[in-house]
Design a protein that fits this description.
5-stranded parallel sheet; 16% strand; Ribose 5-phosphate Isomerase B, Chain: A; 6 helices; 147 residues; alpha/beta
Length: 147
């Protein structure tokens, strides 16, 4: 599974740590930036590229980073086909996969330490969509809204 990563300066350090974690665990990574720390960069530039990658490769997932993760989640959700969630605990991330088939996880570096971030990413990547009819029906309605 290919994993697209994106961040601005606020999530840069956490992205680099998660990138190493993913590579160590055998995932194919596409880093969409930022590629260096620049306090004046703008997260939409990098998050949109990561979300576009996920939207074009349905077997992929994305993990994006920022200070709060909220703006990054908003940007990702502007891309057709993306169901991004702001991850803040294990249950929230697990339910986002089981019920919403979320394909982008947004993490806030101000609220997520390295160990929790690794745990949330693992849950996000390992938890399958439930395929329950009610959840599939709701996702179909979301997709219709995108049209």
């Amino acid at each position: 599974m290919k994993i697209y990563l994106g961040t601005d300066h606020a999530g840069f350090e956490l992205k680099e740590k998660i990138k190493s974690y993913l590579v160590e665990n055998g995932y194919e990574i596409e880093d969409c930036g930022a590629f260096s720390f620049d306090k004046d960069d703008d997260y939409p530039d990098f998050i949109a590229n990561a979300a576009l990658g996920v939207s074009k490769n349905t077997d992929s997932k994305g993990v994006v980073f920022g200070k709060s993760g909220a703006g990054e989640c908003i940007v990702a959700n502007k891309i057709k086909g993306i169901r991004a969630i702001l991850g803040f605990n294990k249950e929230n991330v697990e339910l986002s996969r089981l019920h919403n088939d979320a394909n982008v996880l947004s993490l806030g570096s101000a609220f997520t330490n390295d160990d929790l971030a690794k745990e949330l990413v693992k849950i996000f990547l390992d938890t399958p969509f439930s395929n329950e009819e009610r959840h599939s029906r709701r996702i179909a309605k979301i997709k219709k809204l995108e049209e």
